[in-house]
């Protein structure tokens, strides 16, 4: 792969270099996810979903490439998975500052704690699929809990 393509892959996988944060790169990547969510929130649910799926597939590809470039599994600089996971967290929910803050906290809790089957996905799926799908699962969990919060059930 050419040097320019490697730089582009690292730029995208690291969430516009937020993954290079010296402390809590996953949290830094989730903050980029919030910014992207703010930009995408006015879109129709269909277009939002298509763009989120596009980021998922892009993330699988760039995560595979970063693992090859750096020679390590799920490098901490890869945060495109947190970006996609946060977009899943907020899918179909009303745009509101409190909802975004709650979504951030819930997503980070599920991403870090990795309750069943998230941890299994993380351990068993190889390459970019393993990098991305555990965060997608964390986003689904966070989305479901956030829906209960928004509706006043929790």
Structural class: mainly alpha
**Biggest sheet architecture:** none
In terms of DSSP E residues, the strand content is under 5%
Order of helices and strands: HHHHHHH
Helix content: over 70%
Overall mean pLDDT score?
Answer: 96
Query: What is the 3D form?
Result: globular
Unreliably modeled segments = none
Total DSSP helices: 7
**Number of extended strands:** 0
Radius of gyration: 15 Å
What is the straight-line distance between the termini? Answer: 50 Å
Count of the separate structural domains: 1
Describe this structure in words.
The chain has helices spanning 3-13, 25-40, 45-70, 80-89, 97-113, 118-124, 127-150. With 154 residues, it is an all-alpha fold. Helix 3 (45-70) runs antiparallel to helix 7 (127-150).
């Amino acid at each position: 792969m050419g040097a320019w393509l490697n730089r582009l892959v690292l730029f995208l996988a690291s969430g516009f270099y937020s993954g290079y944060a010296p402390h809590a790169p996953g949290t830094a990547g989730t903050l980029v996810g919030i910014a992207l969510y703010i930009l995408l929130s006015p879109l129709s649910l269909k277009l939002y979903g298509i763009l989120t799926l596009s980021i998922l597939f892009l993330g699988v590809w760039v995560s595979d490439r970063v693992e090859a470039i750096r020679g390590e599994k799920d490098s901490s600089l890869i945060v495109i998975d947190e970006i996609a996971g946060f977009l899943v967290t907020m899918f179909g929910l009303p745009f509101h500052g409190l909802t975004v803050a709650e979504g951030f906290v819930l997503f980070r809790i599920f991403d870090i704690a990795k309750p069943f089957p998230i941890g299994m996905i993380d351990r068993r799926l190889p390459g970019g699929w393993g990098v991305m799908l555990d965060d997608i699962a964390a986003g689904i969990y966070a989305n479901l809990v956030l829906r209960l919060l928004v509706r006043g059930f929790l």
